[in-house]
Write the structure tokens for this entry.
Amino acid sequence: MKQLEDFIIENIKKKGKLTFADFMRIALYHPEYGYYNSDREQTGMFGDYYTSPTISKYFGELVAKQLEEMWKNMGEVNFTVVEMGSNTGWLCYDIMCFVRKEYPGFYDKFRYVIVESNAYKRKKQQMLLDSINLPSEKVVWHTYTENGFSFDEIDGCFLANEFIDALPVHRLKVKKGILKELYVSYNENGFFEIEDNLSSHILLEYLETCKCDFKEGQVFEVNLDGVNWLRQVSKKLNRGFVLTIDYGDTKDRIYYEDNREGTLRCFYKHTVNCDFYKRVGEQDITASVDFTSLINIGRSFGLEFTGLTNQSQFLIALGILGKTNTLENGNNAVLKIKNLIHPEVMGDVFKVLIQHKNVTNTRLSGLKPLRLVEM
Ligand SMILES: C[S@@+](CC[C@H](N)C(=O)[O-])C[C@H]1O[C@@H](n2cnc3c(N)ncnc32)[C@H](O)[C@@H]1O
């Protein structure tokens, strides 16, 4: 997109170079032209990728089941769910419908906060939720910036489905045993990359906290915005859980030795590419989530580790296979369930991390190991 590229080029001219994180922040979140702030569809058939809530309502229903158990574990207190970056609003819609229908006691104590920065999407979410006639205080909208959230402390659960993978990342490289950062610059031939010293000492502190050990020549991403998000979450979570669902893995499985180039990639009309400097503002840029770092850094902010599993195990443990007995749309619904749990589609690629604060009963069905069926 010409206007966005010109904006980035101007910034590069002023500063000489941009960190990749700054480039990605503008490409995705420029208030007018950024990919996530435009009014085009990102998810679903006419977008660039699918997310679980846009595939099947059973995803939201099973998340609702897990939330109800959290509420019970916490002594049935007033319970607020804070959903990050709701996009279409389908996850909130499915959770609200299910909680109202299946768990009236929970529904009475239940409140939902959508954190959404895109005004166009907020409007679409409001229209979708208006269609199910909820009392106005049940779902409210708030914002999140690097300085924190626009609401007070909560008891309940922060819910982030495919939020952290969409945050800007720094790109680092080990060169002759020294850590270098990859920057973006520009000349008459277009954008190009420069290796230079680290842009911030915070990157080094991060690497120490997450105990990373990278090999010569390896490129890897550091998601400092994810760290700041966890810090802000820990400040606002008085009691409760953080439920993070995203693609990624533990550090050793993401940054294995053969992965020399890192995990950064782009999604455009359901295809994947590594042309980070093309279609700027028109394609998604994303990096896999390093769950080891989220766990270690979360601990340093007082968020204790409850458990880590994959989406397949999480949904099966919560009863997704039982849904096949009550399917309304026949084969189509079976196919959607397969997409959610098949290891090569979303089942193993997506991980589910649960952390907690000030909760003693942390036994959760979604984290239970699966038992083999006895024959
Ligand atoms: C990959 S999309 C995930 C959409 C949705 N959670 C789903 O599962 O369909 C990432 C979302 O995070 C949102 N996001 C990023 N930074 C945000 C912020 N500071 N406040 C609110 N939303 C944000 C983006 O606008 C985008 O909608």
About this structure: The chain has a mean pLDDT of 92.
